[in-house]
Amino acid sequence: MRVFHSPLHARHDGGVELHRGQLVPCFEMPARADYIARALRDVGHAFVEAAEHDDSRLARVHDAAFVDFLRTAHARWREEGRDGSMLPSGFPARSLRRDRVPAGINGAMGYYAFDAGTPIVGGTWTAARASAHCALSAAEDVLSGSTAAYALCRPPGHHAARSAYGGYCFLNNAAIAAQRLRDGGVERVAVLDVDYHHGNGTQDIFWTRGDVLTVSIHGTPETEYPWFLGFDDETGEGDGAGGNLNLPLPRGTDWTAYTAALETALAAIRRFQAGALVVSLGVDTFEGDPISAFRLGADRFPQIGARIAALGLPTVLVQEGGYAVAEIGLNVAGVLGAFTEAR
Ligand code: OKP
Ligand code: ZN
Fold it and tell me: Which keywords label this protein (predicted)?
């Protein structure tokens, strides 16, 4: 299958993140994309550089003022005489006002961010935009008749909400791809999120919509990031009532429990009668992942790919997490290889 990529991903290099009380080197680093690219090239996937797309595609799923914030944040930071990486340190939690965006950059950053683990640097906007372009190009490839396409997105996207960033994510690439499929004439689109972390941003974006089903299998937010969304009683509202399915699983989940959840997810997608599928493909469910706690061996990723392929739907696979950098390429190639063989 075609791999849509962009060299501009490397412009986002956050440096450090706040992790368990310490400033540590970012887990979400440029080398991740390079390892994936090498592994996919080695097995012969066709590489295509993502095309430029209009920014109006981003505003289909994000708030315009939020997109403006991302576009201008680092320039505003530099105008205050600072440089390097931006991390927020105050957030509008309970008892504080959320009805106004502070005029200054520090307050605005805390307003739009939901964690202190997602630095913005000078190249973040360029990279995040290029990442979204990978997803858009892959979606258009599928609209033109390809069975499936893979977007080598970096930075990832599934934590980015309509007007909030965090979890290493700025623009929600999977949501942007799903919306592109809708705008291209697909009436019902399903998003299956198999990243270890709950896809809170995708859930938020489609929460009140009946045309996009969102399903996420993830480590339970009782103990796992993003902690404040992803429980199984979140099912959608309004036109989106019943259109969100969360399948949280405990730390230590093995293949037996994982496949049961995967089959539940696939059954829901079949029932929805989707015309196309977007997969938020995180491979941080791997047993060697440094920030996650499922126990899937590398041999399970081809099985995941084959099961998803069995849905028989036109599919856009969008890269999300995966932080065991040495194995990330093998695990992504495992999913894509088995998917291709099954179709
Ligand atoms: C991104 B993706 C809080 C940061 C905690 C965030 C993990 C984001 C995972 N200071 N870590 O879903 O793989
Ligand atoms: Zn993740």
Answer: Hydrolase, Metal-binding, Zinc
